[in-house]
Amino acid sequence: MAKAEINKAYLSRPDNHDLDHIDGTDGIPYFGESLKSIWGMEDLLKSHAEKWGNVSRVKILHQRGILVLGVDNYQKIYLDKDKNFSTEMGFAESLGQFYNGGILMKDFADHKFLRRMMQGAFKNAAMKNYVAMMNPVIEAHLETWDKIDNFQFFPEIKKALLEVGAKVFIGVELGDEADQINQAFQDINDGLLGQVRKEWPGTKYGKAKKAERYLHDYFSQEIDKRRRGDGVDMLSLMCREIDDDGNFFAKELIIPQASFLLFAAHDTTTSVLNHMTYYTAMHPQWQEKMREECLALGKNQIDYEDLEKMNVVDNVFHESLRLRPSVAFVARRTINACEIDGVQVPADTMVFLSPIMNHRDPQFWSDPETFDPNRFLPERAEHKGHSFAYHPFGGGAHKCIGMHFAVMLSKTFMHQMLIKYDYSLPTNFKTRFEWVPLPKPAKLPIKWQRRT
Ligand code: HEM
Predict the structure, then answer these.
(1) Which residue has a Cα nearest atom 19 of ligand 1?
(2) C or N terminus of the chain, fewer CB within 10 Å?
(3) Lowest-confidence segment of 133-142, 162-171, 180-189, 332-341 by average pLDDT
C-alpha cells in the first residue's frame, strides 16, 4: 500500500503563540532575546537550561516558540520518524522570505525530489572538478594578502569565497557578471537582517527583493544555455540532471536551488575558515602540524585524492566547528501537537535548536572549552559518544548536502595558506566572538610571513 500523503494544511496555518503554559521568557519588548544571541549565545542557552531545563519558551528572531536542548531530543526531532516537524514552516519567516522554494524550505516528498535533483552535483566526479576550479582562484587571492595594510581576515576571505562561489557554483569568470551576481547575493543577505519588512525605497528588504528578482531572471535565462553546454559547475550539472522518466527537471525547481546553494555554502565556509585560522594562529603548534602534513603532499595545489591524507587539517576543521559551529541555530515548526521531553507542545509551534550545548556537553567531551583537535582521533573519538553529540551539519533528511564540499574547500584553502605563509596574531591578542549574522571572531588582524 502506498504511504499516506501528508496533509499539507499545516503550510497555510499561522504560528501558534499560545505557549504560556511552558516556562521560559519573552525577553525584552520587540527584540525578545535576539540581542543577547549576538555575543552571548552560549550564555543564553546555558541560562535557559539552568532555569527551565531542556524545553523552554523563548522569543528570538521576532518569533515566539520553544528552545529545545539535549542530545536525545535532537535525535527525535532531526530524525522525525513521525513526520511532525516542518523545516518549510520553521524557516518560512526567515530564510523563506528570500529563498522560498530552496531545498531546506521543502518538506518530505517535495524535499526528497529536490535532493534527487541535486545529488549528481555532489558526487565524487563532480567534486574532482571543483577542486581544480577553486585552486587558482584561492591562489590569486592569497598572493596579495601580505601586501594588504591593516589586514583583517574576514573581509578578505569573504571576497575570495565569493569568487570561488561564482566560478564553482555558477560557472562564471571574474568580471561584471560575477560582480553583479555577488552583489545581488550580498544584498539578499543584508535583507535577511533588515528590521523593516516592506519594499519601501531605501530599505534593506526592498533592495534584497530587487536582488532576488535579478537572480531569478539571471538563472532563468541561463538554464537553456547550460543544458546545451558542457559546463562542470554546479548550476550546469543541475540543469543537465534528468529525472526517472528521462526528462530535465523543471526550471522553476532549479532556480531557487541555485540561489540557495550560494547562500548555504558561503557564510558557513567563511565562518569555519575564520575559526580555523584564529585557533591555529593562537595555537601555533597546530599550525605547524597542519603545515607538515601539507608540505608532505609535495605540491602547490592539491588534487581530490589528497584530501583523505589530510587528517590533521580534518581534525582542526572539526574541532573549530565543534567550538564555533557555523550554523548556530536551526528552526522547525510542529505539525501536530506532541510531547517533547515531557512538555506538551501545541501544533504549529516554532522549535529552535542549536548545536552549541551538545558540542560542549561534558558527558561526551573532555575539558570541553579547550581547543583540542586530538579528541577526533580514532582512539578518542569523542564525537561518537552519541549520534547528536556533534552535529554541525544537522541530521536526518535535511543533513547538509554540502558537507564534503565544505571539508574539501577548507582543506584546499588551508593547504595553500599553510605552504605559502606562517601566520600569527599580535602578542596577547584577545577578541570577542560574534554568533550573528555569522559566527566569527569580531577581529582577526593576521600577520603574514611569506615562506615561498
Ligand atoms: C562548514 C560548512 C557548513 C556547515 C556547518 C553547514 C551546516 C548545515 C546545516 C546545519 C544544515 C541543516 C539545516 C537544518 O537542518 O535546518 C545544512 C543544510 C544544507 N547545506 Fe550546509 N553547511 C555547510 C556548508 C555547506 C556547503 C558548502 C553547501 C553547498 C555546497 C551547503 C549546502 C546545504 C544545503 C543545500 C542544505 C539543505 C539540505 C536539505 O535541506 O536537504 N552547506 N547545512
Answers:
(1) 400
(2) N
(3) 180-189
Whether 309 is in a domain gets the answer yes
What are the pLDDT digits (tens) for 22-78? 999 988 776 677 767 777 899 999 999 999 999 999 998 789 999 999 999 999 999
Cβ–ligand 1 contact at 37 (below 6 Å) = no
Range of the domain at 147: 93-331+359-450
In ligand 1, the atom with minimum distance to the C-alpha of 272 is 1
pLDDT tens profile 190-203: 888 777 788 888 89
Measured in Å, residue 268 CA sits from the centre of ligand 1 at 8
User: Residue 2 has what pLDDT?
Assistant: 45
Tell me the whole-structure pTM to 2 decimals. 0.97
Which atom of ligand 1 is least distant from the CA of 355? 10
| Alpha-carbon span 334 to 355, nearest angstrom | 19
Give the span between the Cα atoms of 90 and 15, in whole angstroms: 10
* Mutation pick for ligand 1 pocket among 75, 356, 400, 435 (CB with most ligand atoms within 8 Å): 400
Q: Which residue from 28, 100, 14, 97 is spatially nearest to 58, judged by alpha carbons?
A: 28
- Say how many Å lie between the CA of residue 104 and the centre of ligand 1: 9
**Cα→Cα distances 110→86, 130, 246, 255, 303, Å:** 12, 28, 19, 15, 35
Q: Ligand 1 atom closest to Cα of 353?
A: 16
CATH code of the domain in which 417 resides: 1.10.630.10
Closest CA to 85 of 446, 278, 338: 338
Residue nearest atom 37 of ligand 1, based on CA coordinates: 104
